Amino acid sequence: MTHSTLTAITQRIIERSEGSRRAYLARMAQARGNGPTRGELSCSNLAHGFAACDDQDKQALKLVESANIGIVNAYNDMLSAHQPLGEFPDLVKRAAHAVGCTAQVAGGVPAMCDGVTQGAAGMELSLFSRDIIAGATAIALSHNMFDGALCLGVCDKIVPGLLIGALSFGHLPVIFAPAGPMTSGLGNKEKAAIRQQFAEGKIGREQLLEAESAAYHGKGTCTFYGTANSNQMLMEAMGLHIPGAAFEPPGTSLREQLTTAATQRLCKITALGQEYTPLAEVVDEKCIVNALAALLATGGSTNHSIHWIAIARAAGIIIDWEDFSDLSQITPLVSRVYPNGSADVNHFHAAGGCGYVIRTLLDNGLMHEDVKTVWGEGLRHYTAEPQSLDGKLHYVPGVSASGDTAVLRPASDPFDPEGGLRLLQGNLGRSVIKISAVAEQHRVVEAPARVFETQEALKSAFEAGDLDGDVVAVVRFQGPKANGMPELHKLTPYLGILQDRGHQVALVTDGRMSGASGKVPAAIHLIPEALADGPIGKIRDGDIIRLDANRGELSATVPADEWNDRTHAKRRSNDSDYGCGRELFAFMRDGVSAAEAGASVF
Question: What radius of gyration do the chain's Cα atoms show?
Fold first, then answer.
């Protein structure tokens, strides 16, 4: 039986979204029209669309009787997670041909690596790249040549961007196909320790680079449970992968068979067949709630408290941080994967992975089972385990017990009774905090503020010895309007060192910390942001800031009359306006919505 609170939250989302969801579904019904859209193209249009195809594919496309799959590919050589996708289009075309269909690369989308741009100017383009990807996906599918779309992407903004773009073509069936994680390298705990030693000046850059290279060493997704791997968990929970596709490594026969099966399943669920499954019917209110439940149960990326709001809105569904927070209170934390533990995603996968998480949540009424997926009716399909037997893909029942209870536990005996993502409110506005990696003794902090406008300024203060005591580091003018809301990973080692020295330490920011949010309590995504005259702009050095994750409080303990009389600080530097292409994104900074509305320009 479904948990009563899960049902209640879903119902309030349905009621809140009634008008926008109805309008979205009406648009999708209109887009579907009377059949394959390429059948309505003029002869000249259609000839342009298949001019480069071989004669066999041209004949199939002329007849409009078999499915043509549009491949939207986020391949590039720089992202380890996306490099294997370069080989996927030929495999997809062969798989489509084997069932009498065709496939074309409809278009490519940009895919930037936050790991490369971390702490650099390029990171200020990262969040906005999601909406650029959404637009590029729409461009790829706008030719009306396709009966379904296969989206190839893995990492942080890429999957949300692909999904937002695809939802504008929600009359089409859409399946996502990832490439899988890299093999395990240097352990995450060891890597974090070396980074901290470097921040303290105990080791040099050569030793740091050697450690980083041992951690990020091959093809596939980075193995910590950040935004990229959270994406994959959520695609399974939403029924947008074929079952078990998330964490099979690249280059294996099973990975190839999973991609083949995704293609052939997509061919079967177009409007030309008997199992028509448009994306608009898969991504509904229950589907979105299932995604949030999976995120919370696994201690996933805080980035998704922004991305999944934007995704939901693209489907006419309105969610907010209160929905996340209320779901978190009933969703047990069932996995410990770095940064919430020492294991990586390969250990998670070996212990039971996505299938086990979905099974234990379903068994305890903490996900909706009665949903439509690309694999068929019901989410229970996603508890099955794919195996390669005799050169073919087979599904067997997934594990019903964790293979390693230090990594995965049942919902009836979790690591923590709640998911660990909470809404903070007070006279500083609204923000979210991820506490699944924060020890109980660090969840309430009351300390004097030190105000910074950049990560570099905090780093300089630390190196000068000016941050050697209890502190709430306030880093403002980091919201989407100010500079694109970059991730603030440079802060993590320094604040972690202060906490290890026994100080009360917290971070308050209108910026992001991402899936690598760790042991230091961090009130992030604070709205209104500083550039929108949010209260964070009133904080002065020495103000006592209270962050109470247990009670959901974030406040400056300044007398009310003094607080009300204060003016907002003005940004001292506009360095983010130019350089590294940032001038091209000024229109996005000017038009972006607040973080709780998805930080979107749409």
Answer: 24
